[in-house]
Structures are given as C-alpha cells and as structure tokens.
Predict the structure of Insertion element IS402-like domain-containing protein.
Amino acid sequence: MAGVAAAGRADLTDAQWAVLRPLLPVGAKPGRPPKWGKRRLIDGIRWRVRVGAP
C-alpha cells in the first residue's frame, strides 16, 4: 500500500497508546482536520529523541 508506513520496532504498542491517549488534549475549535494523528506524531518525536536527529 502506498502512503502507509510500516510499524517500527519502537513505535507505541496498543497497550501503551491506550494508557497515553486519555491524557492528550482534544481539539476544541472547528477547522481543518490534522494532517497526522497524535499517535503518529508521538512516534515521530520518540524516534527523533532516540536517534538524536536534529
């Protein structure tokens, strides 16, 4: 499938996401929907921290 990223070794598991998801804020204003989901953004942040990418 084009455009679908494969899950990485260090991506959040479903159990970890179930714990973290209720702690994240929910958008309160209408507008354009986000381009990426919160889970994907958090996985990206964790990757950058883990590998030391600028």
Remarks:
- Residues 24 and 38 are 8 Å apart (CA to CA).
